[in-house]
Design brief:
It is found in: Membrane. One of its GO terms (molecular function) is ATPase activator activity. 27% of the residues lie in helices and 19% in strands. The radius of gyration is 33 Å and the shape is elongated. It has helices at 2-20, 33-63, 107-122, 140-143, 167-171, 231-237, 316-319; strands at 21-22, 27-28, 31-32, 85-88, 99-103, 130-131, 161-162, 188-193, 221-228, 240-243, 248-249, 266-270, 278-286, 300-308. By secondary structure, the chain is α+β, with helices and mostly antiparallel strands.
């Protein structure tokens, strides 16, 4: 049995070695040199055509896109036509928290908010491709045709956006010199609208301005209103100062992809917040074409404020 087993093994080795290379038939792995050339040529042509077809399809798809305007935007799309409201300072290292909490007696407790605002506002020092818009000048003059259509959004024209000035906020006590009001216990919060290409505020008719903003509303502005979310919060919120008083100026709209678009905003200064209490704040944006919906949070934003006034705990090293 051992002899037959060795013989069978030898035959198997010879068969496999002949499959690898058969000198008599001139084959390698069962194919002649001509057969190998033919099959390699076939797959080379096949995969070359497949790659060319894929590149062609990708090129056709990319040719339908524009780097300045989304393929689908506006009503009936995911982007929609209703801008959301955002606020700063919003901490990237704690994105789920909407609580702005700091201690008047501990600068380190609000330094993170000051740094966040510094970083956010630093982009406004770049004046490249911007222009001073005075009087009736606006972004709309460069981007819209006579029928209100966004004629230049998809063109290669270099558009200089209206320059957004920060001096008004500094004069109102919401500048870097006062740590944006945090050092005084009067924090300043930035409110912005999400960028929607082609969106512009539509003015209310004179007799349809909401009562809640009637005293501050001006045409071509998005007026903002901040209040407590409950009766107790409204009582605790106290005096609120809006900078500018009318809200966000509409001359900075519509938004478009520009070399240096400067997004407009307004600041809300909370002048007399209670100490050591959490106040729930709700801010809403008002214009004829801004829909406010509590369920989906359209046209509004919520956050909490807490100003502490307690002596910070000393570290173990300091106490020793």
């Amino acid at each position: 049995m051992n002899g037959r087993g060795k013989a069978n093994g030898a035959v198997g080795d010879q068969t496999f070695s002949k499959f690898l290379f058969n000198k008599d038939k001139g084959t390698c792995l069962g194919r002649t040199a001509k057969s190998w050339v033919q099959i390699l040529a076939f797959y080379l042509v096949f995969y070359s055509l497949l790659i060319a077809f894929w590149i062609g399809c990708l090129a056709i798809f990319l040719s339908t896109l524009d780097d300045k305007v989304p393929r689908y935007y506006g009503k009936g799309t995911i982007i929609g036509v209703n801008p959301g409201v955002g606020y700063q300072p919003w901490l990237l290292d704690d994105p789920d928290s909407t609580l702005i909490r700091f201690n008047l007696q501990d600068k380190s407790s609000y330094q993170k908010y000051v740094d966040t605002l510094d970083k956010y506002l630093s982009k406004y020092s770049n004046l490249t491709a911007t222009r001073e818009c005075v009087g009736n000048e606006s972004n709309a003059q460069l981007l819209m045709d006579g029928n209100g259509e966004t004629e230049n959004l998809a063109k290669d024209n270099i558009i200089e956006s209206c320059r957004f000035e920060l001096s008004e906020f500094t004069k109102a006590g919401c500048g870097k010199d006062t740590d944006y009001g945090f050092s005084e216990g009067k924090p300043c919060v930035i409110l912005t609208l999400n960028r929607l290409i082609g969106w512009m505020p539509i003015d209310y008719a004179r007799d349809s301005v909401p009562e809640i903003i009637k005293g501050r509303y001006k045409p071509n502005f998005i007026t903002l209103k901040c209040d407590g979310t409950s009766d107790i919060d409204k009582e605790h919120l106290g005096d609120v100062k809006y900078i500018p008083e009318a809200g966000i100026d509409g001359k900075y709209y519509p938004y478009a992809v520009m070399p240096n678009y400067q997004q407009p905003f307004a600041m809300i200064k909370f002048n007399n917040l209670p100490r050591n209490k959490v106040v729930l704040v709700e801010c809403r944006a008002y214009a004829q074409n801004v829909e406010i919906d509590i369920t989906s949070k359209l046209g509004m934003v919520n956050f909490e404020l807490m100003v502490e006034n307690i002596e910070p705990e000393k570290s173990t090293e300091q106490s020793q």
